Amino acid sequence: MFMMKLLNKLRITEAINFVLRPILTFMGIGPQAATLTVVGLTLGLSYGSGLIMHEIREGAVPQRDIFSAMTLMGVAHSLIEDPLLMVLIGADFSGIMWGRLIVSLGVMALLVKLVKTMPRPQFMKIFMNAA
Q1: pLDDT one-digit tens code per residue, 8-36
Q2: Is the pTM of this model over 0.90?
Q3: How far apart are CA 12 and CA 17, in angstroms?
Q4: Alpha carbon of 128 to those of 52, 66, 72, 120: distances in Å?
Q5: CA distance 113 to 27
Q6: Are 30 and 62 in contact, with CB atoms under 8 Å apart?
Q7: How far apart are CA 48 and CA 117, in angstroms?
Q8: 39, 53, 37: which is closest to 5 by C-alpha?
Q9: Which residues have CB under 8 Å from 20's CB, separation 6+?
């Protein structure tokens, strides 16, 4: 929580949210979950998930946004670490990085489109079983 407060005081999360808002909105992540998603992607999966669990208890973030944010963190959590490991065994960093990014965005776009077509009761059943 200290890191989150520090990033908010320095207005770093606000700047990152401004830059990523169009992409996050496209992925079904609203403004309430944008900060949590950015923090989760930059500071780590467990930290971001912990913040999201806190927000679930508070009830401040819509459930579809939470679902999309957690899915994005799950799909794209290692966009930097894994390519660096692949570079160590001889892979091209930019190829691995762009490939993972494109696949992550594609998976999220398909998932968001699928979730938007689901009626709320069916989505809630799936969401509650996954949580």
Answers
A1: 788 877 787 788 888 888 777 887 787 77
A2: no
A3: 9
A4: 15, 12, 18, 12
A5: 9
A6: yes
A7: 27
A8: 39
A9: 34, 38
Over residues 66-88, the pLDDT tens digits come to: 888 888 888 877 777 778 888 89
Structure-token match 């998603």, residue found: 37
Query: Position 99: which residue type?
Result: G
Structure tokens at 21: 């808002």
Q: Which two tokens stand for residue 97?
A: 């990085």
Q: Which two three-digit tokens encode residue 77? A: 């959590």
Both tokens of 123, joined, read 């989505």
Amino acid at 55: E
Token pair listed for 64: 């579809």
Q: Is 41 within 8 Å of 72 (Cβ atoms)?
A: yes
